[in-house]
Amino acid sequence: MVEHDEDIIRACDEIIDIGPGAGQHGGEVVFQGEFSKLKSVPESLTTQYLTGTAAIPVTKSRRSHSSYIEVTGVKENNLKNVTVRFPLNILTVITGVSGSGKSSLVKKVLYPALKKLKGALPIKQVVLTCYEATWT
After folding, report:
1. pTM of the full structure
2. Contacts of 32 (CB under 8 A, 6+ apart)
3. Which of 15, 40, 44, 56 sits between 20 and 30 A of 28, alpha carbons compared?
């Protein structure tokens, strides 16, 4: 599995760390083995982040938003009468355990709802409301 969660990485039986960097600077196996031996590879970015020698600072302020799209009454696969607001013009992440409805929410609800908003697709079961959004 591809994983970034520290607890899961620590609990793995076998780690295959690809790097050393991203894009054209990656593509090599930097480490393979048990977690306890990962520390022996200081050039691994995974090692650097897990040991605290490297860190990604969290910004003190977040972008604000005033526009969002709301879907209400969503009943699709595992989603049970869900209402969700999707903020616009900011980065939004949908998370959850496997099978919780993330893909259904995006692929079967949000995307078709956006197409409906643009007049490209009829859609049923979802009430879509757009607040202060401007579409180009």
Report:
1. 0.52
2. 14, 15, 16, 17
3. 56
